[in-house]
Amino acid sequence: xxxxxxxxNYKSIDTLEFELGxxxxxxxxNGAGKSNILEAIALAxxxxxxxxxxxxxxxxxxxxxxxxxxxxAFPGFNPxxxxxxxxxxxxxxxxxxxxxxxxxxxxxxxxxxxxxxxKIHDKMKLEINDDYIDDIEGFIKNFKDTDKYSINIIEKxxxxxxxxxxxxxxxxxxxxxQYIEGFxxxxxxxxxxxTFQREGQIEPLGINGEGxxxxxxxxxxxxYAETFSELKDSLQVLGWFGDMxxxxxxxxxxxxxxxxxxxxxxxxQYFGQLSTNEGFLFLLxxxxxxxxxxxxxxxxxDNIDASLNPKLCEKLMLExxxxxxxxDKQVILTTHNPAILDGLNLDDDEQRLFVIxxxxxxxxRMKRISKRKTPVGERPTRLSEMFLRGxxxxxxxxx
Length: 399
Ligand SMILES: Nc1ncnc2c1ncn2[C@@H]1O[C@H](COP(=O)(O)OP(=O)(O)OP(=O)(O)O)[C@@H](O)[C@H]1O
Ligand SMILES: [Mg+2]
Description:
Elements: E1 4-10, E2 13-19, E3 23-28, H1 34-48, H2 54-59, E4 83-87, E5 96-99, H3 114-124, H4 130-144, H5 151-181, E6 185-186, H6 190-194, H7 212-219, H8 225-234, E7 241-250, E8 254-261, E9 270-271, H9 278-291, E10 298-301, H10 310-326, E11 330-334, H11 338-341, E12 351-358, E13 364-369, H12 383-388
Parallel strand pairs: 3-11, 3-12, 6-10, 10-11
Antiparallel strand pairs: 1-2, 1-4, 4-5, 7-8, 8-9, 12-13
This protein binds adenosine-5'-triphosphate and magnesium ion.
């Protein structure tokens, strides 16, 4: 997981540093800068992948504007400044992405350090997995314990173990780069979800939901049987949902999804995605996104509550927290719906809530909300209620 992010000079962000958990929810007024924070991280992802052309930025969910407006347009800020995003460590340049643009017509974003970084990464990239290293270490330890060897040999074996630990450390140092590479800002749209067949530039899932049918077809194959059945379990949050299958009956249209409604006539129980409701398609998208190693490890969903009933928002969050823990996903969500917060458990350090606001100069600020202790004798207040009563912040001033 990525623990810490430092952003400088991106749109409404002058300088911002925050520590992330596994599930991170951002709330705040319209225009506070929630999406700008996600975009800055997506920009680091594009830099890590060395794909900084505008078309790639757009397909990651970044609203690309004139290059000077990609930096803060506040008084006194130089529109030539670098945009900088650092992951986890301030002291090492290994995960520092600094982007420049000379603001001339058709100019491009460049990351002057990209080549050097790639060389370092290539050198450090080791195709050995941790289990293998553990096996060798265990083997050496057994070997040493047999008492048959001279001090000299034991010393050499100890050195070997130290080197193995070094290798593990180097591999770990590379992880933030690997996590950020796949970072996208998902913002599913019903049109993309319904015209299921459309596939996007980014696989397996595009930011608006493109590619979902293909992903489901893959997941319905024998190899992913467990994932597909888990997906169906997750969908039980909808009371009417009975079953789901992918069929391949139409040679022209190819695969199609069929969904079963418990309440329908026996011989008409299965219907296609065109007859299903919007909420279902959104849930299907989210659960698929969280349930497989085919999708990114670290990503964002902007406005997660779109099209969902408040009570379902709470259930959705509980399920996403469970899936994120199980499948080792790290995610940043934004929402305007208080009900989403009720699915968060702030006693768990992996689940975090942040309020985003603008300071007196207009710059974006971020504050982590910790759980308020309930005074003795009072009933605990739900987070949704605290949000609506203004206790958490992030609400516009009264009219
Ligand atoms: N170059 C810039 N310099 C300073 N501020 C900017 C710049 N570009 C955009 N902004 C500000 O950032 C705001 C948009 O922020 P953002 O889209 O992140 O808000 P948000 O919190 O996601 O809002 P919503 O909840 O409506 O989606 C704009 O309204 C604008 O005021
Ligand atoms: Mg937004």
